């Protein structure tokens, strides 16, 4: 069983009744994740990384559990039996991909973060072919190349010679770990089928992530003090609702319909969306390299999402 019924032929996802809706919703995921970037910039000096991540997923899990408590109780035998699955998923998706990014930002540049994290969809696409045996057409491969080229073009501001200026620092290891963990999170959800609905499954994954995060959060609180200010609480609530419940639920549900490869491509939209939001809300200039990169990214994502049929 899987989160939602899927066709027996993985090469024909269009037969799924919710394919069109899923193809539309994947464009929303990066917009929700941009909120987490804003939170990450405001968090230093307000709340520590593990406390923020633990609070975020504790609240998100509680919200999801409130709506799915009957299903969770009915499936308690399954949850107990496969608890380690959910601990691993929570460790990958909530611990490493949560706190690690905040740590990375303390010692590495945004150029490095964008370039290294952009490798995650490539790892997912390749892993889906080699490990999950998902079909991958030549059109999709072209889409991966175009999207990656678009990300790099935005990051280096159209000056590709700047790639030679990248210097690796300890924070790069954090972001590389986060990118790898996200790839593992995406593929393991597909590899480990579950009888739980997307909402209930995410609630249990949140619980697994919180259990992994708590020892680290407890240590941070022992160093900084156990009292959280109003601003810290607001950051936790915002992180739980937007890049938490909504983004992860949409990601998981669309992945169950379209597969991990195409949905992972939405990560390439992050730099493009961030540039547009900064232009609209912060008055930062939208330059030619943003537009060129945007065309490449959108073209690549479109090819991957729409090109699953035929090689």
Keywords:
disordered N terminus, single chain, mainly alpha, 14 helices, 311 residues
Point out poorly predicted stretches: 1-14
Share of residues in strands: under 5%
Global morphology: globular
Q: Find the structural class using helix and strand composition.
A: mainly alpha
The percentage helix is over 70%
Task: Report the oligomer.
Answer: single chain
Outline the biggest β-sheet: none
| Number of structural domains | 1
N- to C-terminal distance: 28 Å
| Order of helical and strand elements | HHHHHHHHHHHHHH
Number of strands: 0
Specify Rg, calculated over alpha carbons. Answer: 19 Å
Q: What do the pLDDT scores average to? A: 81
Number of helical elements: 14
Description:
Helix content is 74%, strand content 0%. It has 311 residues and is an all-alpha fold. It has one domain. Residues 1-14 have low confidence and may be disordered.
Short description:
The protein has 311 residues and is mainly α. Helices cover 74% and strands 0% of the residues.
Helices, strands, pairings?
Blueprint (H helix, E strand, L loop, with lengths): L18 H7 L3 H14 L6 H26 L1 H6 L1 H25 L2 H8 L1 H12 L7 H18 L14 H22 L6 H27 L5 H29 L1 H5 L4 H13 L6 H19 L5
Helix pairs in contact: 1-11, 2-11, 2-13, 3-5, 3-10, 3-11, 5-9, 5-10, 6-9, 7-9, 8-14
């Amino acid at each position: 069983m899987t989160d939602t019924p899927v066709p027996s032929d993985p090469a024909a996802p269009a037969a799924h009744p919710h394919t069109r809706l899923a193809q539309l919703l994947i464009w929303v995921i990066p917009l929700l994740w941009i909120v987490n970037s804003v939170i990450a910039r405001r968090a230093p000096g307000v709340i520590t990384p593990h406390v923020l991540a633990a609070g975020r997923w504790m609240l998100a899990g509680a919200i999801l559990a409130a709506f799915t408590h009957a299903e969770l109780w009915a499936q308690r035998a399954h949850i107990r039996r496969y608890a380690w699955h959910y601990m691993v998923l929570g460790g990958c998706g909530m611990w490493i991909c949560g706190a690690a990014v905040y740590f990375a930002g303390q010692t590495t540049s945004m150029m490095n973060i964008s370039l290294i994290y952009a490798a995650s969809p490539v790892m997912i696409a390749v892993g889906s072919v080699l490990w999950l045996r998902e079909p991958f057409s030549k059109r999709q491969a072209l889409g991966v190349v175009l999207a990656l080229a678009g990300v790099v073009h935005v990051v280096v501001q159209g000056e590709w010679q700047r790639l030679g200026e990248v210097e690796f620092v300890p924070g790069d290891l954090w972001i590389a770990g986060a990118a790898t963990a996200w790839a593992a999170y995406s593929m393991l959800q597909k590899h480990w089928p579950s009888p739980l609905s997307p909402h209930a499954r995410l609630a249990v994954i949140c619980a697994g992530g919180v259990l992994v995060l708590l020892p680290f959060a407890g240590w941070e609180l022992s160093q900084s003090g156990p009292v959280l200010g109003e601003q810290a609480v607001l950051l936790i609530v915002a992180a739980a609702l937007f890049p938490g419940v909504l983004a992860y639920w949409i990601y998981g549900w669309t992945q169950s319909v379209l597969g991990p490869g195409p949905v992972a491509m939405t990560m390439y939209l992050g730099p493009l969306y961030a540039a547009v939001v900064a232009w609209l809300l912060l008055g930062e200039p939208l330059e030619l390299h943003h537009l060129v990169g945007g065309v490449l990214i959108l073209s690549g994502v479109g090819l991957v999402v729409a090109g699953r049929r035929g090689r």
